[in-house]
Design a protein that fits this description.
alpha+beta, 698 residues, 11-stranded antiparallel β-sheet, Beta-galactosidase, Chain A, domain 5, 24% strand, 6-stranded mixed β-sheet
């Protein structure tokens, strides 16, 4: 370090003595790279280990501009692939089924040399907001994206005639339609519709594009290749730069053109890339953790994934479409979002956004409320504005937002619509009964919060009717307890769903099983390898020990899952004859356990929470389980709120303990409001972390 840097650190300690240092940056702030430079977009992009891509995108951006490879995984890309079809503009982030997106594929190659082209994998690079690779004998592709605009630039290595092909029918789901309104190279406009993830509904999207060479509009006439594919042939010289600029809109193609003109028409690729970097730098800096090694890189890489969904869908003039296809305008200063995977991420990702960015969360809450106003479906409608997976538990998410002081919707207006939905919820299989009970509980709590006590009492009684089933099915271990999909379950076992009623934990722990039996049988669940980290139904289970008075076991398990190779026995379809053994989270293209999808930031958020030593055990209750953080210290800067610091301390022989601003937290829990008012959370434990991580399973 230069002397000036060392002096700056010394001055900070002089200005920020012990006791008021909470308001000052940590000593390592000037020494470590910026969080944005620690992100590795290739994590989770190999095989069925995350279903992620190195897409160029900005926080909550519609455009996810990424290569489409041969072979491909769910989102059109596989790190191990070495051939390229082209580059498309959208994808759902780390979801299952066949993925979603792939809209408007752009392919550029020399005449007579058709896709797929060989990739120069050694040249492949990516960072927040950009991607680059050489392919096809030396063509260099550079991608940048911010919000709803993307730029694809192709630098040509030699003179010749090239062909640019645009395919609006390319998709990872069923393509329902694709139409062109304008086909000139300098003014392309069209619209597309395709199946949402798992083809449960349809989303509709419009685009506008402009093709140029060295900054000048290409004059080539469009050539129809059939099936709505359009080609443009023209001559280039060595070093020429061919650019495809694209804007997306959920309104119509004319609005997409305005998006393009406002966002990319007169700005260079470098400008868009810098804009995206600035946005990412701001968002990622909401949490500061020390160092620049593997642990910090994993942390910021996963925070990067958390902040990609849902997508902002309103245009610059505020117009957008709701999930029934109707046109609306967001209030001035506010935005609207779409691209939901709520069943997957309401447990972790949405609560993390609520903590870090309550300002944006207000608009996300308003967008969730509008699902009800538009006629909410369990998965998705036939008129979705953007790629959506499913919307179960939106009511739980709204309750959670509201109890954390986040507005954006009229609870009295939305509550009757939530209640109306309850009658249509599936309520047959054991897991369905638990999940529906959670939604009923959320409606009951919301009714209580707005002062409707008779309705709250009626709904509370209804929410507890699942208990009879739980006693019959889950209380005593049966021969089919370790069978995936037994008794109609969704992607899990009875063992894994046994711990699902987090909204009714006090009954389960203190009344139905008793604290001793609960802890003993939860221990058996982990000791016998029955836990499944690759899917959401039981990801809260490690934190249940703390709720049952065994915080040290929670700390031990969380550290093991964060850092160590473990046995992974389960797939969504069944139990493996032999486990896949490896890290659940690793700084590697094989970034997740085999078969583990990130699921729209759901798993990435789990990693962030666990690394901070906090966990939202029951969305809808504004409190967090406290456990040992993975870093010696971390500072969180919520948008518009006071910062708080989390510090790791070695145990003094009293086991797992925690204090908030010096006051003991005997239950190892802390309220959301307390955190956001600022202070210091200190956790003492024998589970001290921060050391080197073991090698990744390859």
């Amino acid at each position: 370090m230069m002397k000036t840097g060392r002096l700056a650190v010394q001055l900070r300690f002089w200005i920020c003595p012990l006791g008021i240092g909470l308001l000052c940056p940590p000593a390592w702030a000037d020494e470590a790279p910026a969080p944005v430079d620690l992100v590795d977009p290739f994590v989770g992009t190999s095989g069925d280990h995350g279903q992620l891509t190195p897409a160029a995108t900005s926080p909550f951006g519609m455009v996810q501009l990424s290569p489409d490879t041969v072979p491909a995984q769910h989102a059109g890309y596989d790190y191990q692939a070495d051939h390229l079809l082209g580059f498309s503009h959208t994808r759902a982030v780390g979801v299952g089924c066949g993925g979603g997106g792939g809209d408007l594929l752009v392919s550029v190659g020399y005449a007579g040399d058709t896709a797929p082209w060989a990739m120069d994998k050694a040249s492949e690079q990516a960072g927040p907001g950009w991607y680059s690779v050489r392919y096809g004998g030396g063509i260099r592709a550079d991608l940048a994206a911010a919000g709803a605009v993307g730029i694809s630039r192709f630098t040509m290595p030699r003179s010749g005639t090239i062909r640019v092909v645009l395919d609006p029918r390319h998709s990872y789901t069923k393509r329902h339609s694709a139409q062109w309104q304008k086909r000139k190279a300098g003014d392309m406009r069209g619209s597309m519709s395709a199946g949402t993830v798992c083809d449960q509904g349809i989303y509709h999207l419009s685009f506008a594009g402009a093709l140029s060479r060295n900054g000048q509009t290409v004059k080539a006439a469009p050539i129809s290749l059939g099936d709505e594919r359009q080609a443009y042939d023209f001559a280039v010289r060595a070093g020429d730069r061919v650019e495809m600029r694209t804007g997306l809109s959920v309104v119509d193609s004319r609005s997409a053109r305005r998006v393009l003109e406002r966002g990319a028409a007169h700005r260079s690729l470098e400008h868009v890339r810098r804009e995206a970097r600035t946005e990412w730098a701001r968002e990622l800096a909401r949490v500061q953790v020390p160092g620049s090694g593997e642990r910090a890189r994993l942390f910021y890489t996963h925070l990067f994934r958390v902040l990609q969904t849902p997508a902002r869908i309103d245009d610059a003039d505020g117009r957008y479409r709701q999930s029934d296809g109707t046109l609306h305008r967001a209030p001035r200063g506010h935005h609207r979002y779409s691209g939901w995977a709520i069943w997957d991420n309401y447990r972790t990702q949405l609560p993390l956004i609520a903590l870090l960015d309550p300002v944006r969360s207000e608009d996300i809450a308003a967008s969730l409320a509008e699902l009800y106003l538009a006629g909410k479906a369990q998965w998705s409608t036939q008129n979705e504005p953007f790629i959506t997976v499913r919307t179960e538990h939106a009511g739980v998410a709204l309750l959670d937002f509201r109890r954390k002081g986040i507005g954006g919707f009229d609870a009295a207006e939305i509550l009757p619509l939530m209640i109306k939905e309850l009658d249509a919820l599936p309520n047959e299989a054991p897991d369905q009964q638990i999940e529906t009970a959670y939604d009923v509980w959320a409606a009951a709590e919301l009714a209580s919060d707005i002062g409707n006590r008779p309705l709250a009492a009626s709904l509370h009684e209804r929410s507890l009717r699942y208990r009879t089933m739980w006693q019959r099915v889950f209380k005593e271990v049966a021969p089919d307890f370790d069978v995936v999909k037994a008794r109609g379950l969704y992607q899990g076992t009875l063992w894994q769903y046994r711990w699902a009623p987090v909204f009714d934990l006090d009954w389960m722990i203190d009344q139905e099983l008793g604290r001793a039996r609960f802890g003993r049988e939860l221990g058996r669940f982990f000791d016998q390898g029955l836990f499944n980290m690759t899917n959401q139904p039981d990801i809260q289970a490690p934190f249940l020990f703390s709720a049952a008075g065994q915080p040290a076991r929670t700390a031990s398990l969380v550290r093991e899952i964060l850092d160590s190779p473990i046995d992974h026995w389960y797939t969504n379809a069944g139990k493996r004859p032999r486990p896949w053994h490896g890290r659940s989270f690793a700084l590697h293209p094989v970034g997740y356990a085999d078969g583990m999808d990130d699921d729209a930031g759901g798993m990435a958020a789990w990693y962030v929470w666990a690394s901070l030593g906090l966990y939202p055990l029951t969305p809808g209750k504004p409190e967090y389980v406290v456990t040992t953080p993975a870093f010696p210290e971390a500072t969180v800067h919520p948008q518009g709120g006071a910062p708080f610091r989390i510090e790791q301390r070695h145990s003094t022989g009293e086991g797992q303990t925690a204090t908030w601003n010096g006051a003991s937290l005997p239950a190892m829990k802390i309220d959301h409001r307390a955190l956001t008012e600022g202070g210091r959370l200190q956790v003492a434990s024998d589970q001290a972390g921060g050391g080197a991580l073991p090698p990744v399973h390859r």
